[in-house]
TrEMBL record:
It comes from the Eukaryota. This is Uncharacterized protein. Keywords: Coiled coil. Residues 1-51 are annotated as: Disordered. The keyword Coiled coil applies. It comes from Tuber aestivum (summer truffle). Residues 1-18 have a biased composition (Basic and acidic residues). Residues 41-51 have a biased composition (Polar residues). Residues 126-153 form a coiled coil. Residues 24-40 have a biased composition (Low complexity).
């Protein structure tokens, strides 16, 4: 091919989009290797790193990148060949060491190698941030559960302290007992003699001298104290307290069948992963909802009589 024809061919290729990256251009590229051993370096687009297939390689990547206009697939392939040929003949090649491995290529090729690595690093950073966010959400949920437990236990403890002061006022001060004092004493008595799963769980999980008789707690409340923080539904807590009160009562307060129904409720309350779900009163009734209602109906029946719990 004469020099005149070669120049015209190059100009035609450039007019078809081979000179640089425009808004209508798509980057194309090719790689070649220096002669030497069979070991070929690879640009890993997943990790953004350059790697060798063997430890001792004397080859490096040669990267050539240009662009073509977007259009018909066949035409784009032909233009890519022309464009790469022009870039190979006209673009200045440089040698740079990136990621501890030498690269040979035109400016667009070297930039492509760097942008690939930068994109992968950004993706890895985003994944790392996503994992940190997930961990923070778990920590936040744990803290929220602990705050709920502490708030509930404080409310119950205040009832007991009200009872102490009002009882002292009644027995030692000789003053007239107000209606609020009578209510404080009554509520405090209930707290002392009834179940309180939230506060009692702290005796096993938060106390300086934690209790170790876990089976006693489970016999009273149906589940182990470590799981109490998962419970958000007040109805669940009330039923656990009701069961403990019935277990601890000196006289029978409910059908014996109530305890069987309660165990069935606890069994259904636990999911396959061993956690206790607390949404059975939200949405359509489920088997857990039915087990919960059966417990309440049975407890409300008169002890010793056949009732709705049978």
């Amino acid at each position: 091919m004469s020099e005149k024809k070669r120049g015209a061919w190059r100009r035609g290729a450039r007019e078809r989009g081979a000179t640089g990256r425009g808004a209508t251009g798509r980057p194309t590229g090719t790689t070649t290797e220096d002669s030497g051993s069979d070991s070929t370096p690879q640009l890993n687009y997943d990790s953004g790193t350059l790697t060798h297939s063997t430890d001792n390689s004397n080859k490096c990547l040669a990267i050539l990148v240009t662009s073509v206009n977007i259009g018909d697939e066949v035409v784009m392939k032909e233009e890519a060949k022309d464009s790469l040929q022009v870039a190979l003949q006209t673009d200045e090649l440089s040698i740079e060491t990136r990621y501890s491995i030498p690269l040979v290529g035109n400016q667009a090729g070297l930039e492509q190698a760097s942008s690939t690595r930068a994109f992968v690093e950004l993706k890895q950073h985003a994944n790392s941030l996503g994992q940190k966010v997930s961990q923070l959400e778990l920590n936040n949920a744990s803290l929220e559960a602990r705050v709920r437990v502490l708030t509930r236990s404080q409310e119950h403890y205040l009832c007991v302290r009200h009872r102490f002061i009002s009882t002292f006022k009644r027995d030692k001060c000789g003053g007239e007992q107000s209606e609020s004092d009578r209510q404080y004493i009554q509520q405090g008595n209930l707290q002392v003699h009834e179940g309180d799963v939230v506060t009692d769980s702290l005796l096993y999980t938060e106390a300086t001298r934690a209790r170790h008789d876990l089976n006693t707690f489970k016999y009273l409340y149906g589940i182990y104290p470590v799981f109490i923080a998962q419970l958000r539904q007040q109805a669940t807590i009330n039923l656990l307290n009701l069961h403990a009160t019935a277990r601890a009562a000196r006289t029978q307060q409910c059908h014996n069948h109530f305890f069987t129904l309660f165990q069935e409720f606890i069994r259904k309350l636990q999911d396959q992963e061993g956690n206790y779900r607390d949404d059975y009163l939200i949405g359509p009734p489920t088997s857990v909802t039915q087990a919960y209602l059966a417990c309440l109906l049975c407890y409300d029946s008169v002890a010793g009589q056949d009732g709705s719990c049978h």
